[in-house]
Amino acid sequence: MDNQQKGTILTLLKVDEITGNYTNNYWFTYKDFLDPTDDFTAFECERLEGKERYTALIENLLSIDKCAKVFVQVYGMENDSEPFVYADTLMIFSKLSLDGIKQIFNEPEDIFPSDIGEETDFSQPTFLIGNNGQIIPGAELFKGNDSVYYCWWD
Question: Own/partner pairs for 55-62, CB < 8 Å, 24+ apart?
């Protein structure tokens, strides 16, 4: 994740905290969020080690559905000595069925999700934090005939 993306998400999360408005969803591409060398992000409690396992699952999906898109939904931030953002949910746009997604993500015995399902409620504002920190409205992502699924780890 580049510094502009980091600055954008920290600003958005701080504004949400100040205003008490926690209705927005913020997403990153999985490649930006799951960078195994970037300790600014934590996925399923993994700040550095372990991110490759989730990337391997996603790459398995992409080998089956080459047009799929995978995002990570940010849940919040922590202010240790250095701030970082955390997440535990993948958002998947795919032509595969829910059963197909479940088969891919439940295959490994050590990191299978707590829940996998189809996302049908798009009422909350959603924003993708793109390269160079630009904020892309989620409405631009929800075009097409793909189903939208979530994979959540507890």
Answer: 55/30, 55/31, 57/104, 57/105, 57/107, 57/108, 57/111, 58/30, 58/34, 58/90, 60/104, 60/107, 61/92, 61/94, 61/96, 61/101, 61/104, 61/105
pTM: 0.93
Are the C-beta atoms of 68 and 96 separated by less than 8 Å? Answer: yes
Integer Cα distance of 65 and 10 in angstroms: 33
Three-state DSSP at 44 gives coil
Distance from CA of residue 121 to its chain's centroid?
17
DSSP secondary structure letter of residue 40: T
pLDDT of the chain, 154 residues: tens digit per residue:
999 999 999 999 999 999 999 999 999 999 999 999 999 999 988 776 779 889 999 999 999 999 999 999 999 999 878 899 999 999 999 999 999 999 999 988 788 899 999 998 888 999 999 989 999 998 888 877 899 999 999 8
Is there a contact between 58 and 72 (Cβ–Cβ < 8 Å)?
no
